[in-house]
Amino acid sequence: MALASASLLSLAQSVSAPGSPDAHNADPRIAEVIKQVSADRIKQTIDKLVSFGNRSTTSPQDDQSIKAGKGVGAARDWIKSEFERYSKNCGGCLEVKTDAFTEQPGDRIKSPTEITNVYAVLRGSDPAQANRIVLVTGHYDSRNSDTFNGTDPAPGANDDGSGTAVSLECARVLSKYKFPATIIFLTVAGEEQGLNGSRHFAQMAKQQGWKLEAVLNNDIVGGDRNPRQDPTVVRVLSEGIPAAATEAEIRRVRMLGGESDSPSRELARYVAEVGRTYQTGVNPLLIFRLDRFLRGGDHYSFNQQRFAAVRFTEFSEDFNHQHQNVRTENGVEYGDLPKFVDFDYVAHVARLNAATLASLASAPAPPANVKILTKQLEKDTTLTWDPSTGATAYEVIWRSTSAPDWQYVQTVGSGTRATLQVSKDNEIFAVRALDSAGHRSLPVVPEPER
Ligand SMILES: [Zn+2]
Fold first, then answer.
1. DSSP 320
2. How many angstroms does the Cα of residue 115 sit away from the middle of ligand 1?
3. Are strands 211-218 and 7-8 parallel, antiparallel or unpaired?
4. Gap from CA of 220 to ligand 1 centroid (Å)
5. What pLDDT is attached to residue 9?
6. Cα 264 versus chain centre, distance
7. Residue 412 in contact with residue 2, Cβ under 8 Å?
8. In this structure, are residues 439 and 357 in contact, taking their beta carbons and an 8 Å threshold?
9. Could you tell me the distance, in angstroms and rounded to a whole number, from the CA of residue 273 to the centre of ligand 1?
10. Tens digits of per-residue pLDDT, 241-284?
11. CA of residue 143 to ligand 1 center, whole Å
Protein backbone atom coordinates (compact mmCIF):
# COMPACT_ATOMS: atom_id res chain seq x y z
CA MET A 1 0.00 0.00 0.00
CA ALA A 2 1.29 3.43 -0.90
CA LEU A 3 1.62 5.71 2.06
CA ALA A 4 1.91 9.44 2.11
CA SER A 5 5.02 10.58 3.90
CA ALA A 6 4.60 10.94 7.63
CA SER A 7 3.89 14.42 8.79
CA LEU A 8 4.12 16.12 12.10
CA LEU A 9 0.71 16.38 13.66
CA SER A 10 -0.33 19.96 13.24
CA LEU A 11 -2.12 19.42 16.52
CA ALA A 12 1.02 18.30 18.26
CA GLN A 13 2.79 21.45 17.18
CA SER A 14 0.19 23.48 18.95
CA VAL A 15 0.84 21.60 22.20
CA SER A 16 3.43 24.25 22.92
CA ALA A 17 0.89 26.94 22.06
CA PRO A 18 -2.33 25.74 23.65
CA GLY A 19 -5.48 27.30 22.34
CA SER A 20 -4.34 27.88 18.79
CA PRO A 21 -7.25 26.48 16.82
CA ASP A 22 -6.71 23.82 14.21
CA ALA A 23 -9.33 24.97 11.72
CA HIS A 24 -8.19 22.22 9.37
CA ASN A 25 -10.05 19.63 11.41
CA ALA A 26 -13.03 21.71 12.47
CA ASP A 27 -16.53 20.69 11.44
CA PRO A 28 -18.49 23.90 10.71
CA ARG A 29 -21.65 22.31 12.08
CA ILE A 30 -19.99 21.54 15.42
CA ALA A 31 -18.56 25.07 15.52
CA GLU A 32 -22.14 26.28 15.06
CA VAL A 33 -23.58 23.93 17.71
CA ILE A 34 -21.32 25.13 20.48
CA LYS A 35 -22.09 28.80 19.81
CA GLN A 36 -25.57 28.08 21.13
CA VAL A 37 -24.37 27.25 24.63
CA SER A 38 -25.65 30.04 26.86
CA ALA A 39 -24.12 31.34 30.10
CA ASP A 40 -27.53 32.81 30.97
CA ARG A 41 -29.23 29.44 30.65
CA ILE A 42 -26.53 27.88 32.76
CA LYS A 43 -27.01 30.55 35.42
CA GLN A 44 -30.78 29.87 35.44
CA THR A 45 -30.12 26.14 35.90
CA ILE A 46 -27.66 26.65 38.75
CA ASP A 47 -29.92 29.19 40.51
CA LYS A 48 -32.82 26.75 40.23
CA LEU A 49 -30.77 23.89 41.66
CA VAL A 50 -29.68 26.09 44.57
CA SER A 51 -33.35 26.98 45.25
CA PHE A 52 -33.99 23.39 46.41
CA GLY A 53 -32.12 24.31 49.58
CA ASN A 54 -30.39 21.04 50.31
CA ARG A 55 -29.94 18.36 47.64
CA SER A 56 -28.19 15.85 49.87
CA THR A 57 -29.04 12.27 48.96
CA THR A 58 -30.24 11.99 52.58
CA SER A 59 -32.54 15.04 52.28
CA PRO A 60 -36.33 14.51 52.21
CA GLN A 61 -37.96 13.27 49.02
CA ASP A 62 -41.55 12.87 50.24
CA ASP A 63 -44.46 14.41 48.32
CA GLN A 64 -44.79 17.35 50.69
CA SER A 65 -41.11 18.34 50.33
CA ILE A 66 -41.34 17.97 46.58
CA LYS A 67 -44.42 20.20 46.54
CA ALA A 68 -42.57 22.76 48.66
CA GLY A 69 -39.68 22.66 46.17
CA LYS A 70 -37.16 21.46 48.76
CA GLY A 71 -34.75 18.52 48.85
CA VAL A 72 -33.22 16.02 46.46
CA GLY A 73 -36.60 14.68 45.31
CA ALA A 74 -37.70 18.10 44.09
CA ALA A 75 -34.36 18.55 42.31
CA ARG A 76 -34.74 15.14 40.66
CA ASP A 77 -38.25 15.93 39.39
CA TRP A 78 -37.19 19.34 38.09
CA ILE A 79 -34.21 17.89 36.16
CA LYS A 80 -36.53 15.33 34.61
CA SER A 81 -38.98 18.07 33.62
CA GLU A 82 -36.13 20.07 32.04
CA PHE A 83 -35.04 17.11 29.89
CA GLU A 84 -38.70 16.62 28.93
CA ARG A 85 -38.98 20.28 27.97
CA TYR A 86 -35.89 20.06 25.74
CA SER A 87 -37.36 16.94 24.18
CA LYS A 88 -40.63 18.70 23.46
CA ASN A 89 -38.67 21.39 21.63
CA CYS A 90 -37.08 18.81 19.34
CA GLY A 91 -40.20 16.83 18.52
CA GLY A 92 -39.64 14.22 21.23
CA CYS A 93 -36.05 13.48 20.17
CA LEU A 94 -34.92 12.65 23.72
CA GLU A 95 -35.87 9.55 25.70
CA VAL A 96 -36.03 10.78 29.30
CA LYS A 97 -35.38 8.06 31.85
CA THR A 98 -34.61 7.39 35.48
CA ASP A 99 -32.43 4.75 37.07
CA ALA A 100 -33.75 4.40 40.63
CA PHE A 101 -32.61 1.97 43.30
CA THR A 102 -32.45 1.63 47.07
CA GLU A 103 -29.03 2.02 48.63
CA GLN A 104 -28.58 0.02 51.80
CA PRO A 105 -27.03 1.65 54.90
CA GLY A 106 -23.28 2.19 54.78
CA ASP A 107 -20.60 4.61 55.98
CA ARG A 108 -22.44 7.68 54.79
CA ILE A 109 -26.03 6.41 54.50
CA LYS A 110 -27.87 5.68 57.74
CA SER A 111 -31.05 4.05 56.49
CA PRO A 112 -32.17 2.49 53.20
CA THR A 113 -32.31 5.42 50.78
CA GLU A 114 -33.76 5.76 47.32
CA ILE A 115 -31.25 7.16 44.84
CA THR A 116 -32.38 8.26 41.39
CA ASN A 117 -30.19 9.00 38.38
CA VAL A 118 -31.96 11.05 35.71
CA TYR A 119 -30.88 10.90 32.09
CA ALA A 120 -31.87 11.69 28.53
CA VAL A 121 -30.91 9.66 25.47
CA LEU A 122 -30.36 11.27 22.06
CA ARG A 123 -30.52 8.13 19.94
CA GLY A 124 -28.00 7.90 17.09
CA SER A 125 -29.42 8.53 13.62
CA ASP A 126 -27.36 5.78 11.93
CA PRO A 127 -28.85 2.35 12.71
CA ALA A 128 -25.40 0.82 12.20
CA GLN A 129 -23.89 3.12 14.85
CA ALA A 130 -26.72 3.91 17.25
CA ASN A 131 -25.45 1.28 19.69
CA ARG A 132 -22.28 3.33 20.17
CA ILE A 133 -22.70 5.68 23.14
CA VAL A 134 -20.90 8.74 24.47
CA LEU A 135 -22.01 10.26 27.76
CA VAL A 136 -21.74 13.47 29.77
CA THR A 137 -22.52 13.56 33.49
CA GLY A 138 -22.60 15.70 36.62
CA HIS A 139 -23.92 14.99 40.12
CA TYR A 140 -27.00 16.87 41.31
CA ASP A 141 -26.70 15.95 44.99
CA SER A 142 -25.01 18.46 47.31
CA ARG A 143 -23.75 18.58 50.88
CA ASN A 144 -22.77 21.02 53.60
CA SER A 145 -20.23 20.52 56.44
CA ASP A 146 -22.12 17.46 57.70
CA THR A 147 -22.57 14.54 55.27
CA PHE A 148 -25.72 13.48 57.11
CA ASN A 149 -27.39 16.90 57.20
CA GLY A 150 -30.32 16.93 54.79
CA THR A 151 -32.08 20.08 55.98
CA ASP A 152 -29.75 23.08 56.42
CA PRO A 153 -28.64 24.93 53.29
CA ALA A 154 -26.29 23.01 51.01
CA PRO A 155 -26.46 25.20 47.89
CA GLY A 156 -23.96 23.18 45.84
CA ALA A 157 -23.78 25.86 43.14
CA ASN A 158 -20.31 24.78 42.01
CA ASP A 159 -20.25 21.25 43.50
CA ASP A 160 -21.97 20.14 41.47
CA GLY A 161 -24.65 22.48 40.19
CA SER A 162 -22.06 23.48 37.60
CA GLY A 163 -21.56 19.92 36.29
CA THR A 164 -25.31 19.26 36.32
CA ALA A 165 -25.79 22.48 34.32
CA VAL A 166 -23.15 21.34 31.80
CA SER A 167 -25.00 18.06 31.23
CA LEU A 168 -28.36 19.84 30.88
CA GLU A 169 -27.00 22.56 28.59
CA CYS A 170 -25.33 19.95 26.36
CA ALA A 171 -28.73 18.21 26.14
CA ARG A 172 -30.54 21.44 25.28
CA VAL A 173 -28.10 22.41 22.55
CA LEU A 174 -27.18 19.03 21.02
CA SER A 175 -30.79 17.80 20.91
CA LYS A 176 -31.41 20.26 18.06
CA TYR A 177 -29.12 18.15 15.87
CA LYS A 178 -28.73 14.54 14.79
CA PHE A 179 -25.59 12.46 15.21
CA PRO A 180 -24.81 8.97 13.90
CA ALA A 181 -23.96 7.61 17.39
CA THR A 182 -25.98 7.96 20.60
CA ILE A 183 -25.36 10.66 23.22
CA ILE A 184 -26.54 10.29 26.83
CA PHE A 185 -26.96 13.27 29.15
CA LEU A 186 -26.80 12.00 32.72
CA THR A 187 -27.20 13.52 36.16
CA VAL A 188 -26.53 11.30 39.17
CA ALA A 189 -27.14 11.49 42.91
CA GLY A 190 -25.27 9.83 45.79
CA GLU A 191 -21.87 11.20 44.75
CA GLU A 192 -21.24 12.77 48.14
CA GLN A 193 -22.29 9.56 49.94
CA GLY A 194 -19.73 7.47 48.04
CA LEU A 195 -20.32 7.62 44.25
CA ASN A 196 -23.44 5.48 44.73
CA GLY A 197 -25.46 6.77 41.78
CA SER A 198 -22.68 6.54 39.22
CA ARG A 199 -21.67 3.10 40.51
CA HIS A 200 -25.19 1.79 39.95
CA PHE A 201 -25.43 3.38 36.51
CA ALA A 202 -22.00 2.12 35.36
CA GLN A 203 -22.82 -1.40 36.58
CA MET A 204 -26.09 -1.26 34.66
CA ALA A 205 -24.23 -0.16 31.51
CA LYS A 206 -21.78 -3.03 31.96
CA GLN A 207 -24.44 -5.65 32.67
CA GLN A 208 -26.49 -4.55 29.67
CA GLY A 209 -23.42 -4.67 27.43
CA TRP A 210 -23.52 -1.02 26.39
CA LYS A 211 -20.90 0.08 23.89
CA LEU A 212 -20.08 3.09 26.03
CA GLU A 213 -17.02 4.64 24.37
CA ALA A 214 -16.52 7.78 26.43
CA VAL A 215 -17.69 9.32 29.70
CA LEU A 216 -17.16 13.02 30.44
CA ASN A 217 -17.63 13.71 34.15
CA ASN A 218 -18.01 17.36 35.09
CA ASP A 219 -17.59 18.01 38.78
CA ILE A 220 -16.71 21.47 40.16
CA VAL A 221 -16.50 23.32 36.85
CA GLY A 222 -17.80 26.60 38.28
CA GLY A 223 -14.58 28.59 37.88
CA ASP A 224 -14.72 29.73 41.52
CA ARG A 225 -13.83 33.42 41.69
CA ASN A 226 -10.70 33.19 43.83
CA PRO A 227 -7.38 34.97 43.27
CA ARG A 228 -5.57 31.78 42.20
CA GLN A 229 -8.17 30.87 39.61
CA ASP A 230 -7.21 30.68 35.93
CA PRO A 231 -10.45 31.02 33.97
CA THR A 232 -8.72 30.11 30.72
CA VAL A 233 -7.99 26.56 31.91
CA VAL A 234 -10.02 23.47 32.77
CA ARG A 235 -8.25 20.45 34.19
CA VAL A 236 -8.97 17.09 32.53
CA LEU A 237 -7.97 14.20 34.76
CA SER A 238 -7.55 10.61 33.58
CA GLU A 239 -6.36 7.36 35.11
CA GLY A 240 -3.02 5.84 34.04
CA ILE A 241 -3.13 2.10 34.68
CA PRO A 242 -6.82 1.18 34.35
CA ALA A 243 -8.67 0.40 37.57
CA ALA A 244 -10.15 -2.67 35.88
CA ALA A 245 -6.92 -3.99 34.30
CA THR A 246 -6.39 -7.72 34.62
CA GLU A 247 -3.09 -9.17 35.89
CA ALA A 248 -2.15 -10.04 32.30
CA GLU A 249 -2.88 -6.50 31.16
CA ILE A 250 -0.80 -5.02 33.96
CA ARG A 251 2.07 -7.34 33.02
CA ARG A 252 1.89 -6.06 29.46
CA VAL A 253 1.82 -2.43 30.60
CA ARG A 254 4.94 -3.12 32.67
CA MET A 255 6.65 -4.85 29.75
CA LEU A 256 5.79 -2.35 27.01
CA GLY A 257 5.59 0.97 28.84
CA GLY A 258 1.85 1.47 28.51
CA GLU A 259 1.45 3.40 31.75
CA SER A 260 0.16 6.48 29.97
CA ASP A 261 -2.07 4.85 27.37
CA SER A 262 -5.24 3.76 29.13
CA PRO A 263 -8.43 4.28 27.10
CA SER A 264 -9.25 7.12 29.53
CA ARG A 265 -5.89 8.79 28.80
CA GLU A 266 -6.57 8.55 25.05
CA LEU A 267 -9.95 10.16 25.70
CA ALA A 268 -8.22 12.98 27.61
CA ARG A 269 -5.87 13.53 24.63
CA TYR A 270 -8.93 13.58 22.39
CA VAL A 271 -10.44 16.33 24.56
CA ALA A 272 -7.17 18.26 24.23
CA GLU A 273 -7.38 17.94 20.45
CA VAL A 274 -10.99 19.16 20.46
CA GLY A 275 -9.85 22.08 22.59
CA ARG A 276 -7.29 23.02 19.93
CA THR A 277 -9.78 22.58 17.10
CA TYR A 278 -12.77 24.59 18.36
CA GLN A 279 -13.10 28.01 19.97
CA THR A 280 -14.55 26.97 23.30
CA GLY A 281 -13.05 29.75 25.40
CA VAL A 282 -11.17 27.37 27.66
CA ASN A 283 -8.01 25.28 27.29
CA PRO A 284 -7.94 21.72 28.60
CA LEU A 285 -4.97 21.08 30.88
CA LEU A 286 -4.37 17.33 30.97
CA ILE A 287 -3.53 15.99 34.42
CA PHE A 288 -2.10 12.49 34.19
CA ARG A 289 -3.73 11.29 37.41
CA LEU A 290 -7.07 9.64 38.20
CA ASP A 291 -8.33 12.65 40.13
CA ARG A 292 -7.04 15.45 42.30
CA PHE A 293 -4.54 14.31 44.94
CA LEU A 294 -6.17 11.57 47.09
CA ARG A 295 -9.65 12.58 45.98
CA GLY A 296 -12.26 10.99 43.73
CA GLY A 297 -15.34 11.39 41.57
CA ASP A 298 -17.96 9.67 39.46
CA HIS A 299 -15.69 8.91 36.49
CA TYR A 300 -14.00 6.31 38.69
CA SER A 301 -17.26 4.30 38.87
CA PHE A 302 -17.09 4.00 35.07
CA ASN A 303 -13.34 3.22 35.10
CA GLN A 304 -14.07 0.33 37.46
CA GLN A 305 -16.39 -1.14 34.80
CA ARG A 306 -13.66 -0.78 32.12
CA PHE A 307 -15.14 2.32 30.49
CA ALA A 308 -13.01 5.25 29.33
CA ALA A 309 -13.92 8.16 31.60
CA VAL A 310 -12.32 11.50 32.49
CA ARG A 311 -13.05 14.28 34.95
CA PHE A 312 -13.31 17.97 34.11
CA THR A 313 -12.68 20.30 37.04
CA GLU A 314 -11.78 23.97 37.47
CA PHE A 315 -8.13 25.01 37.71
CA SER A 316 -8.16 26.23 41.32
CA GLU A 317 -10.70 25.15 43.92
CA ASP A 318 -11.61 27.19 46.98
CA PHE A 319 -12.22 24.83 49.88
CA ASN A 320 -14.12 27.52 51.79
CA HIS A 321 -16.76 27.17 49.10
CA GLN A 322 -17.07 23.36 49.11
CA HIS A 323 -18.79 21.05 51.60
CA GLN A 324 -19.24 24.00 53.98
CA ASN A 325 -22.16 25.32 56.00
CA VAL A 326 -23.16 28.73 54.69
CA ARG A 327 -21.74 31.20 57.23
CA THR A 328 -19.34 34.08 57.80
CA GLU A 329 -16.48 33.62 60.26
CA ASN A 330 -13.87 36.31 60.97
CA GLY A 331 -14.99 38.09 57.83
CA VAL A 332 -14.52 34.97 55.68
CA GLU A 333 -17.54 33.75 53.71
CA TYR A 334 -18.09 30.00 53.59
CA GLY A 335 -20.53 28.02 51.46
CA ASP A 336 -21.01 26.90 47.86
CA LEU A 337 -23.00 29.94 46.69
CA PRO A 338 -23.87 31.05 43.13
CA LYS A 339 -22.06 34.36 43.68
CA PHE A 340 -18.72 32.55 43.60
CA VAL A 341 -19.52 30.86 40.27
CA ASP A 342 -18.27 32.30 36.97
CA PHE A 343 -21.14 31.44 34.61
CA ASP A 344 -19.18 32.37 31.49
CA TYR A 345 -16.54 29.88 32.55
CA VAL A 346 -19.14 27.12 33.01
CA ALA A 347 -20.41 27.94 29.51
CA HIS A 348 -16.88 27.54 28.12
CA VAL A 349 -16.56 24.15 29.78
CA ALA A 350 -19.99 23.20 28.41
CA ARG A 351 -18.80 24.18 24.91
CA LEU A 352 -15.74 21.95 25.27
CA ASN A 353 -17.96 19.08 26.42
CA ALA A 354 -20.50 19.64 23.63
CA ALA A 355 -17.75 19.80 20.99
CA THR A 356 -16.20 16.59 22.33
CA LEU A 357 -19.54 14.75 22.41
CA ALA A 358 -20.46 15.98 18.93
CA SER A 359 -17.03 15.04 17.53
CA LEU A 360 -17.14 11.54 19.00
CA ALA A 361 -20.77 10.94 18.00
CA SER A 362 -20.04 12.14 14.44
CA ALA A 363 -16.92 9.99 14.05
CA PRO A 364 -16.67 6.39 12.90
CA ALA A 365 -16.27 3.65 15.50
CA PRO A 366 -12.72 3.30 16.82
CA PRO A 367 -10.91 0.51 14.95
CA ALA A 368 -11.20 -2.88 16.64
CA ASN A 369 -8.64 -5.63 17.03
CA VAL A 370 -5.67 -3.30 16.44
CA LYS A 371 -2.45 -5.33 16.38
CA ILE A 372 1.25 -4.61 16.08
CA LEU A 373 2.91 -7.53 14.33
CA THR A 374 5.80 -9.04 16.27
CA LYS A 375 6.21 -12.58 14.88
CA GLN A 376 9.70 -11.68 13.74
CA LEU A 377 12.19 -9.04 14.80
CA GLU A 378 12.22 -6.22 12.26
CA LYS A 379 13.03 -2.54 12.22
CA ASP A 380 9.80 -1.48 10.51
CA THR A 381 6.47 -1.43 12.29
CA THR A 382 3.42 -3.14 10.83
CA LEU A 383 -0.04 -2.55 12.22
CA THR A 384 -3.32 -4.26 11.30
CA TRP A 385 -6.90 -3.66 12.38
CA ASP A 386 -10.51 -4.50 11.56
CA PRO A 387 -12.57 -2.10 9.45
CA SER A 388 -14.67 0.39 11.43
CA THR A 389 -18.31 1.17 10.73
CA GLY A 390 -18.49 4.53 8.98
CA ALA A 391 -14.76 4.80 8.21
CA THR A 392 -13.42 5.90 4.83
CA ALA A 393 -9.77 6.10 5.91
CA TYR A 394 -7.45 5.49 8.84
CA GLU A 395 -4.56 7.29 10.45
CA VAL A 396 -1.63 5.84 12.31
CA ILE A 397 -0.48 8.30 14.95
CA TRP A 398 2.56 7.98 17.16
CA ARG A 399 4.81 9.71 19.61
CA SER A 400 8.08 9.21 21.36
CA THR A 401 7.77 7.15 24.56
CA SER A 402 8.60 10.24 26.61
CA ALA A 403 6.17 12.60 24.84
CA PRO A 404 2.88 13.35 26.58
CA ASP A 405 0.78 13.75 23.42
CA TRP A 406 0.70 12.42 19.86
CA GLN A 407 3.40 13.91 17.59
CA TYR A 408 3.16 12.27 14.18
CA VAL A 409 0.45 11.14 11.82
CA GLN A 410 0.44 8.96 8.73
CA THR A 411 -2.69 8.76 6.66
CA VAL A 412 -3.51 5.30 5.37
CA GLY A 413 -6.29 4.97 2.76
CA SER A 414 -9.19 2.70 3.47
CA GLY A 415 -6.96 -0.35 3.98
CA THR A 416 -6.55 -2.08 7.31
CA ARG A 417 -2.81 -2.59 7.37
CA ALA A 418 0.14 -0.19 7.43
CA THR A 419 3.91 -0.60 7.56
CA LEU A 420 5.96 2.34 8.77
CA GLN A 421 9.71 2.75 8.64
CA VAL A 422 9.75 3.64 12.28
CA SER A 423 11.08 1.49 15.12
CA LYS A 424 8.49 0.17 17.54
CA ASP A 425 11.22 0.22 20.22
CA ASN A 426 11.21 4.00 20.46
CA GLU A 427 7.61 5.03 19.80
CA ILE A 428 4.05 4.44 20.95
CA PHE A 429 1.54 3.88 18.14
CA ALA A 430 -2.22 4.08 17.78
CA VAL A 431 -4.74 3.83 14.95
CA ARG A 432 -7.84 5.95 14.48
CA ALA A 433 -10.67 5.92 11.93
CA LEU A 434 -11.82 8.87 9.79
CA ASP A 435 -14.98 9.52 7.82
CA SER A 436 -15.18 11.47 4.57
CA ALA A 437 -15.82 14.72 6.47
CA GLY A 438 -12.69 14.25 8.57
CA HIS A 439 -14.30 13.29 11.88
CA ARG A 440 -11.79 11.24 13.83
CA SER A 441 -12.49 8.35 16.18
CA LEU A 442 -10.77 7.75 19.48
CA PRO A 443 -7.34 6.25 18.81
CA VAL A 444 -6.67 2.63 19.75
CA VAL A 445 -3.25 1.45 20.91
CA PRO A 446 -2.31 -1.91 19.37
CA GLU A 447 -1.78 -5.16 21.19
CA PRO A 448 1.23 -7.25 20.17
CA GLU A 449 0.41 -10.12 17.84
CA ARG A 450 2.88 -12.94 18.20
ZN1 LIG B 1 -18.62 16.95 43.51
1. G
2. 16
3. unpaired
4. 6
5. 56
6. 9
7. no
8. no
9. 26
10. 999 999 999 999 999 999 999 999 999 999 999 999 999 999 99
11. 9
Q: How far is the CA of 97 from the centre of ligand 1 (A)?
A: 22
170 CA distance to ligand 1 middle (Å) = 19
pLDDT at 8 (0 to 100): 57
With a cut of 80, say whether residue 10 has pLDDT above it: no
Residue 235 alpha carbon to ligand 1 centre in Å: 14
Q: 450 C-alpha to center of ligand 1: Å?
A: 45
Mind listing the pLDDT tens digit for each residue in 147-196? 999 999 999 999 999 999 999 999 999 999 999 999 999 999 999 999 99
Contacts of 257 (CB under 8 A, 6+ apart): 401, 428
Q: How far, in Å, is the centroid of ligand 1 from the Cα of 190?
A: 10
Asked whether the beta carbons of 159 and 110 are under 8 A apart, the reply is no
CA of 100 to the centre of ligand 1 (A): 20
Contact by Cβ (8 Å): 268, 275: no
* Distance of CA 81 from the midpoint of ligand 1 (Å): 23
State the distance from the centre of ligand 1 to the C-alpha of 298, rounded, in angstroms.
8
Ligand 1 mean position, distance from CA 261 (Å): 26
Considering just the CA atoms, what is the radius of gyration of the chain in Å? 22
Alpha carbon distance 256, 244 (integer Å): 18
DSSP 196-261: HHHHHHHHHHHHTT-EEEEEEEE-S-S----TT--TTEEEEE--SS-TT--HHHHHHHHHHT-TT-
Ligand 1 centroid from CA 3, angstroms? 47
pLDDT attached to residue 21: 38
Backbone φ and ψ for 66, nearest 5 degrees, come out as -65, -45
Q: What is the pLDDT of residues 208-219, one digit of tens each?
A: 999 999 999 999
- DSSP label at 442? P
DSSP sequence for 126-142: -TTTTTEEEEEEEE---
Find the 338 Cα to ligand 1 centroid distance in Å: 15
CA of 212 to the centre of ligand 1 (A): 22
Cα separation, 396 vs 413, whole angstroms: 11
Under the banding of pLDDT at 50, 70 and 90, the label for residue 376 is confident
For the packed helices 28-35 and 343-362, what is the interaxial angle rounded to 10 degrees? 150
Q: Rounded to 5 degrees, what angle do the CA atoms 25, 31, 34 make?
A: 135
CA of 59 to the centre of ligand 1 (A): 17
